[in-house]
């Protein structure tokens, strides 16, 4: 099937298939090592602090590279970028599979993340370029499937693999898929984006790295180390100051690395904020529920991951369907219903007990993820539809960056609320204290969902058409 755009020189289905396969394995890697960390720690003789860096470094590298992708998309052809991203990711997978020690394995994760960080916003930009406005919802629904399903099956797949084989099979299984996708990309990928005259501003890259990297590391560490930790405070301070200087510089230079003028559009600003809230709630819930099942109910890590799978499947199935509904009715109604579901499911989660039915938790979480699918990609699409075509790459890069930060902030806030409430609980029973902490965290989650619900009513009802000025 050819495109309905200018030259009809590429097959849209082939491009969609190549990008979804590449993005799926790239995002899967974000959570793939979570369950395997104890095995890796034992095998490579490292402690938990070092082991955690295998996940943290992946997220940080993603967070640093994503803001730069708008510049890369304008500077280099889409074909060259997809090939480069997949080649970098594949190289990291090879290094990880045969890593003899921890430093090499950590380097492999950073290399993988460099490829993944380019891939996600690049896929969204290409989809938004090759699909007309009235079909973008369905296209972005497929992106939602990848974002929801890949990270959720990571811990489950990881748990099964490390129980049956060694942790190196986590890389062995990904490697052939990455290699096949890379070969197909080289053979079949076409250029679809327009290049613009742009130059690399080194100072902007440095400020962006310190700004977004500092904030992401600070918020991620705050969840485990506490807000008063010296490293957390320094990281947040460096991140905030660098980000201020980065924004000031982007507003001055002729060709910014990341265009902050996208926030002049009220629709884009509001949908990005709501996207941050929903991602914070999703990542926060995915963090707290396994802690409940493992620490309170003594359920294995693998079974805890398995519990989250129906929710991931529900969101994966719903995302393309919701995308088609969005194309017909817009995002306002979907967002209102979605945030209502998040609010209503947060209330029972705020009343967990030491004998709450696991089946009830799985059903509630599955409904919650269905609600999440009504918000995440529809609002992303609505926000980017409000931008003129030349700002689409900047809009997708900004949206992905803000979503990462939203997830980090949400997890940090909910985990710190949980930790402080656990310490200050008026009970001598440690299990009851932990449950009290988790219930407090879900009360905060309910407040966030309520804020999202109220803000959803201010969204515009109609989908804005391409080429209209941003409002």
TrEMBL record:
Q: Name one GO cellular component term.
A: plasma membrane
Instruction: Kindly list the places in or outside the cell where this protein is found, as annotated in its UniProt entry.
Output: Cell membrane
Q: Give any GO molecular function from the UniProt entry.
A: transmembrane transporter activity
Q: What are the entry keywords?
A: Cell membrane, Membrane, Transmembrane, Transmembrane helix, Transport
Top-rank lineage group of the source organism: Bacteria
Quote any Pfam family the record assigns.
Answer: MFS_1
User: What is this protein's record name?
Assistant: MDR family MFS transporter
Q: Which organism is it from?
A: Bacillus glycinifermentans
